[in-house]
Write the structure tokens for this entry.
Amino acid sequence: MNATQHIASKKAQASDPIGVFDSGVGGLSVLKHIQNLLPYEQLRYFADSRYAPYGNKSMAEIQARCFTLADFLIAQGSKVLVVACNTATAAAIDAMRERYTLPIIGMEPAVKPAAEASQNGIIGILATVGTLKSAQFAALLESYGRNVDVVTQACPGLVECIERGEVDSPATHELIKRFCAPLLAEGADTVVLGCTHYPFVRALISEVVGPKVSLVDTGAAVAKQVKNRLIESGLLATEQAPGAVHFWTNSAAVEAPAVIARLWGQAAEVSVF
């Protein structure tokens, strides 16, 4: 048994933290849903911003990053891991579940709920190149996209804008207008936010697509899944006090802690790794 497996298989306690990571700050949108649903849980978040975005990296590169981040969060005592990144989930979740023994929860674009919500049978999907090219995404379309027309749009550059905290800048607005145009041209009435970064520009996307187009993401559903897994494992926190949240980032940008605090919406204890 190697050291990683040994760490991963130690007996978890209800007081142990939930470990969450993403290619950068996007997973904070998922972390917020988890905190809202499970306010007594200790939360640990790692923003792998130095390597963002994952969408243009190979599967092997993404898996290597996921193993490194999982090892770190397991060493912090995590009782469950959340891969708060669609691209990382598609590339690495199966390999992670083979490598580690603790529960691991991933993300996937909300194709099923979007297909169910659409009134005209046309859905648009905004995502990274890595997500759209993945076998997992192809399987989602095969399972849930058969009875709807699906218009996909890769969004190069958008993650980088959000990583810099530019969630309402003119440049970000122009990118969003460009990426949403093909979806609107095809008549999509429901748009999937297929990257955990994108909820941070939800207001801009909503402004561009208009009030008749619904926006769908999976952050709330993932939080519910985390709660269910904790209940099943007998690991739901029992301490009736707000859980502490700690953040790590490996970003070289001096403003990285401030960006995390801004997107988190409150003061944040951030360590630069």
